[in-house]
């Protein structure tokens, strides 16, 4: 049976599934039950500096986007960091770590961007026996207006500076949690590495307004008729997170920097994808908030079964396997030709593929043949875009088939088994210029 145990920055956990810093990890009562359910580690709800804790709104703090079956796709929140006393949190972290020595315990921290503030809290966190710290440079609301959270995460120089302070004043491994509210994630990741960070984790939440109430004209969630932007997470953000993880994993400056992947992880498959893109552990928030702590059982069992099926003994056996396959557009093989194929036995004749292809793609799917409703791909028109696959309600009814020989009936060009990309293409003015030189 597959071995799910992980060692991330020397921190051991029985599996790669950690709960992300958020309400599921904000007190011993929760974290004890999470560990009982099987989570490999937690990142404790972000701690602030000593003194009066932050104050949350007393009304709704969540907004959401649902699929037609009311399944939660995206969650938006305007919650701040922990609103519990620092003393109480530190005591509980120490107690839980003692009770669960084999689980990873990471303390998330957000204090003002002043060396003294970090110097004051770091030894206190270290005294709890926590295994590492995560610097929350991600919250896009509330704390950022106070010069913390994403206000730091959006300025690479600040990231580097604070990471350096943490390395100077603590012996614990330092994970920098990155904000996705930035144009190019490589810059903050590089800054974290320059500052001596041992790892990065990403993503934190994305600035968002989920909806506007058309009776009151207030953004939701509405607090006395007004709303402010919040942080978006859940399944909807997974593609954004995967891309950012991949960018860091393949960047020349950050390649090899350990990554803890976060963003929309709901199933074992999501987790495996993040690991394949180079993550050493994964963190989960929305899925636990939606389905409860026990969801980790399905995640661990599913991952383990898939690893057995594929012959992967440990997480390291497939970690990063997808990274070499992430490339830039100009290197994609332009000789790779596919055509859609409809399985007539599976087709329920709903017509969605025809409408989509007819109105917005390449008029390559019939709707009537010999006066009968019939949906079939016209190879002479099909560009292989796979829009029809994505709109068809029947799984595997439309498949994309690669042409490996013969002539493409659309272009009348013979199939070339070789590889050729845009950098070599005759229509590329730069390629022509280079060839002439
Ligand atoms: C209600 C709520 C509170 C959160 N609080 C924190 C926090 O205190 N510190 C932090 O680093 N991230 C916080 N996050 C962000 C999560 O840790 C995580 O980065 C994000 O939700 C993406 O993961 P997910 O798609 O699995 O939810 C919070 C998220 C939610 C939904
Ligand atoms: S792959 Fe694209 S072009 Fe071909 S049939 Fe489907 S939608 Fe039309
Ligand atoms: S969308 Fe799928 S099921 Fe509907 S007609 Fe097209 S192939 Fe058939």
Give the SSE layout.
Blueprint: E1 6-8, E2 11-13, E3 17-19, H1 28-37, E4 41-47, E5 62-66, E6 72-77, H2 86-99, E7 104-109, H3 115-126, E8 132-136, H4 150-153, H5 156-169, E9 174-177, H6 186-194, E10 199-202, E11 206-208, E12 211-212, E13 219-220, E14 230-233, H7 238-250, E15 259-262, H8 268-276, E16 279-284, H9 286-291, H10 295-310, E17 338-342, H11 352-360, E18 368-369, E19 372-373, H12 387-391, E20 398-402, E21 407-408, E22 413-414, H13 429-436
Parallel strand pairs: 3-4, 3-16, 4-7, 7-8, 8-9, 9-10, 10-15, 15-16
Antiparallel strand pairs: 1-2, 5-6, 6-14, 11-14, 12-13, 17-20, 18-19, 21-22
Helix pairs in contact: 3-5, 5-6, 8-10
The structure holds flavin mononucleotide and iron/sulfur cluster (2 copies).
Can I get a quick summary?
The chain has 437 residues and is α/β, with parallel strands linked by helices. Helix content is 30%, strand content 19%. It binds flavin mononucleotide (FMN) and iron/sulfur cluster (SF4) (2 copies).
* Helix-strand makeup class: alpha/beta
CATH architecture of the largest domain: Alpha-Beta Barrel
Residue fraction in strands: 15-25%
Oligomer: single chain
The helix count comes to: 13
User: What would the principal axes of the Cα set say about the shape?
Assistant: globular
Please provide the count of β strands: 22
Helix content: 25-40%
């Amino acid at each position: 049976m597959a071995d799910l145990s992980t060692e991330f920055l020397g921190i051991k956990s029985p599996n790669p599934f950690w709960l992300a810093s958020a309400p599921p990890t904000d007190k011993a009562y929760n974290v004890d039950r999470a560990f009982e359910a099987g989570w490999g580690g937690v990142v404790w709800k972000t701690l602030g500096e000593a003194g009066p804790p932050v104050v949350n709104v007393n009304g709704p703090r969540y907004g959401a986007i649902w699929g037609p079956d009311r399944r939660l796709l995206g969650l938006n929140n305007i919650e701040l960091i922990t609103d519990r006393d620092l003393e109480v949190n530190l005591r509980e972290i120490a107690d839980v770590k003692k009770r669960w020595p084999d689980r990873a315990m990471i303390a998330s921290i957000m204090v003002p961007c002043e060396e003294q503030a970090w110097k004051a809290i770091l030894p206190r966190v270290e005294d709890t026996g926590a295994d590492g710290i995560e610097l929350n440079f991600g919250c896009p609301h509330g704390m950022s207006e106070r010069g913390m959270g994403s206000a730091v995460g959006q300025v690479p120089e600040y990231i580097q500076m604070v990471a350096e302070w943490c390395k100077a004043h603590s012996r614990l491994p330092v994970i920098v949690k990155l904000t996705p509210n930035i144009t190019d994630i490589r810059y903050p990741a590089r800054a974290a590495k320059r500052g001596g960070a041992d790892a990065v984790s990403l993503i934190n939440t994305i600035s968002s307004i989920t909806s506007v109430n058309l009776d009151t004209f207030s953004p939701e969630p509405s607090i006395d008729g007004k709303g402010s932007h919040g942080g978006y997470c859940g399944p909807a953000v997974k593609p954004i997170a995967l891309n950012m993880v991949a960018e860091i994993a393949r960047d020349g400056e950050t390649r090899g920097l350990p990554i803890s992947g976060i963003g929309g992880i709901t199933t074992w498959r999501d987790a495996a994808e993040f690991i394949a893109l180079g993550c050493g552990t994964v963190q989960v928030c929305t899925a636990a908030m939606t389905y409860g702590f026990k969801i980790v059982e399905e995640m661990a069992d599913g991952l383990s079964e898939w690893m057995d099926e594929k012959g992967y003994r440990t997480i390291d056996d497939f970690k990063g396997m997808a990274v070499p396959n992430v490339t830039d557009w100009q290197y994609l093989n332009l000789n790779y030709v596919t055509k859609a194929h409809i399985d007539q036995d599976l087709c329920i004749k709903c017509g969605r593929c025809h409408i989509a292809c007819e109105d917005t793609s390449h008029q390559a799917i019939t709707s009537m043949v010999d006066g009968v409703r019939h949906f079939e791909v016209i190879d002479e028109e099909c560009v292989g875009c796979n829009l029809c696959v994505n709109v068809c309600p029947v799984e595997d009814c439309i498949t994309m088939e690669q042409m490996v020989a013969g002539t493409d009936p659309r272009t009348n060009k013979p199939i070339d088994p070789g590889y050729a990309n845009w950098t070599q293409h005759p229509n590329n003015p730069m390629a022509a210029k280079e060839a002439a030189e």
